[in-house]
Amino acid sequence: MVSIIMSTYNGTTYLEEQLDSIRLQTRQADEVVISDDCSKDQTVEAVKAYIQKYDLKNWSIYRNETNCGWEKNFMQGIEKTRGDLLFFADQDDIWEAEKLEKMCAVMEQHPEISVLASDYMPFYMDAAVDKARNEEKMQSDGTLEQYPFDTGFLYVHRPGCVYCTRRSFAEKIKLYWFEKYPHDALFWRYANLTGGLYLYHEPLIRFRRHANNASSVATTGLAKKTADAVYYVEVLKKLEQFIKEQNIILSDRQKRIIGKVIRYSRYRLRFLKDHRLLCGIRLIRYLDCYYAPKTWISDWIIVLFKKEMKR
Fold this sequence. Notes:
The chain is globular, with a radius of gyration of 20 Å. Strands 1, 2, 3, 4, 5, 6, 7, 8 and 9 form a nine-stranded mixed sheet that branches. It is α/β, with parallel strands linked by helices. It has eleven helices and nine strands.
């Protein structure tokens, strides 16, 4: 059984194109669950009208009693589904017609996969977003690749809207979710840790980029960097808890990698939060743990500039 979970919030602008692309799949989903996070526009009414227009008996929409944020909205949406295979959908993309058919076939042929992430084709609605984005280059050659586990495992390289996962895996890792933890980051990291993260190099959605995308929001500054550092420390605590409670057997290499990333995260938090310059110096040994080495330089600039401004 195949389920789709869509999160909506004030999405009327692009919603119908996305609904059409889901409805017209060559392999139909057994259920489509739409979870609305207290939209202030006509999103809920538009979805209800769409369901009625096409007599979509296996589609349903739920409206949260209070706004909880898109991260929690997706996690709650999982609880409303019954499928063995789960797909996440944003409200503003366009799925290729064979997305479900192709990804389900891969999942059925490869039981070792916990999370399958396809390639995507970005397109831009705002010139400013187009200039600001630096999208990762993708192979898009139809191959299947197990994603490697390395010191960059904290960083997510595909958006959740290209994922297919198994309910059995979702049930296992949902216990380690916490408030404001993006669902795609949760699934990416835990699948990568356990060897079940695979990339399917087939572009199966048109990924709409605009100023209101959750993933288009890019802010810098000491407060934001410190908040990110606190978040990563919590992510790693939950990951350690998962390893212990689920009796995950790690290789010596994985143990070394995780230990190094934990030390990096703690040093970086002390550097950013408490301005411990010695921690900042020590971080030069952990450049491979950063998303990009230049972030270490920007950390120093911001910390020193902030201290200078306080004087």
